[in-house]
Amino acid sequence: xxxxxxxxxxxxxxxxxxxxxxxxxxxxxxxxxxxxxxxxxxxxxxxxxxxxxxxxxxxxxxxxxxxxxxxxxxxxxxxxxxxxxxxxxxxxxxxxxxxxxxxxxxxxxxxxxxxxxxxxxxxxxxxxxxxxxxxxxxxxxxxxxxxxxxxxxxxxxxxxxxxxxxxxxxxxxxxxxxxxxxxxxxxxxxxxxxxxxxxxxxxxxxxxxxxxxxxxxxxxxxxxxxxxxxxxxxxxxxxxxxxxxxxxxxxxxxxxxxxxxxxxxxxxxxxxxxxxxxxxxxxxxxxxxxxxxxxxxxxxxxxxxxxxxxxxxxxxxxxxxxxxxxxxxxx
Length: 331
Prior knowledge:
The chain is an alpha/beta fold. The chain is 60% helix and 8% strand. It has 17 helices and five strands. The protein has a five-stranded parallel beta sheet with strand order 2-3-4-1-5, with helices on both faces. Helix 7 (140-153) packs across helix 8 (160-170). The radius of gyration is 25 Å and the shape is globular.
């Protein structure tokens, strides 16, 4: 991504780009940077076409790409989530792959996709004639650096330790992190030092963090507090089955962490093995100290039976989750 940014700053524009991956924030950021590099604001209306979804016909996209720019050196065509890079649109993908070789020098095409098949002809042709960047989530270290930098942009300071707490509370999705950092910036005095207390009272916790908190209360026998968290989730229109699936996932992750710890794996090795961030694994390891493997397996079986009882109509959903919380809030 640094190389892409360097090339755009030097006005070195390729005929086509493919940005793919799970991090929407990065795809949007670099899409806007490409747009800013190619188009003057005054020329954007006449020289920018955006095609979204798999219903757009190839002929319409190619007609747009063949249109000469108006009062601008280039046109920009943005194609979002077209599914051209997967198996379902083979004929359309073939046509687009052939067109990639002959894109007019007055046109730039940008594809934004979540997932791609690297074996396809279209992917290979863009790799040969254009520029491809995978944009998945940043590493934890990179995210912490980014958080500190974004806080400075919003005119307040944050220590790395507090940034790690913000990451835990909000989650790793950069769009949501950006929103919460702006909220902190609006609340805090200029150049103030953000604290974990500020984060607690200002920022919106992610669902995963709320489930972490719920399980922590259960583990520590704080039944009333656990039930309060659950009721608040229901008030926020989270379904009981969703809460149940998240609790099941927590128990499953704790069990996996415990088994890997018993195999002598370190925290960073567990994170790599499970495809999780270090701060999440740290929480799972902490929670695993309160259970043995047998208890965790029994908890998973209890959750599964609860799910079956709800779906077969034996138990009412909200009450069923409360009973589960009561069962595992015993010291």
